[in-house]
Amino acid sequence: MSVTTTATAATTTAVPLTGHPDAAFAPTAARVPGDVDNRATYVSFGLAYLLGHGSAAVSEGATPLLDLPGWLPMTLLGAGLAVGTVQATVAALRAQRAATGPDDVLSGKLLGAAWVTAFAALFLAITGLTATLDIPDVQSLLWPTGSGFVVGLLYIAEGAQRRNLLHYGLGTWLALTSTAALLLGTPGLYWVLTLAGGGAYALAAVLEGRRLAAPAAP
Q1: Are 194 and 77 in contact (CB under 8 A)?
Q2: Entry pTM
Q3: Which residues are bridge partners to 216 per DSSP?
């Protein structure tokens, strides 16, 4: 083989597959540079769902499986959501520090602040509805479903900004299942949130490890 042929072959190998008929089947990176590890957030929220909603599921209804104090489910849920919100804010700050462009830095700051704003707005909405409608029990319905809906929308925004399909897909699932659970009443909605929400977080934590192990896009 001549030197010219060898050089040509090497050059041809280096050409990207864009425009090639088989380009759609070329392997693609699962993440982008500067991405963050969301496993701590997934585990925190997952435990909140499994313990908070799970304890409500087994203690609510006409024939509860366990006799638990009424304050326990909301306490477990609130503690888990608080830890998860802190973890999510930390992840947003890490993504902000890893960002290079000014637009990405601004997006990271806004997404980090959105967590505080969203839950503050949810608190005001539920508190206002409870006072206006004079139905104290409405909090036990709106906090579980409303928090799942808010977290789902935030995940969708973060997933779109970070180009993280796993984060985006998890947010879509949480937003839909959390609001659909309202159709079932109690204790059915708690079972949906426990199994569909907690299960989704557990699966996402496993898939997140595989995603981070994949090579980053150049």
Answers
A1: no
A2: 0.75
A3: 31
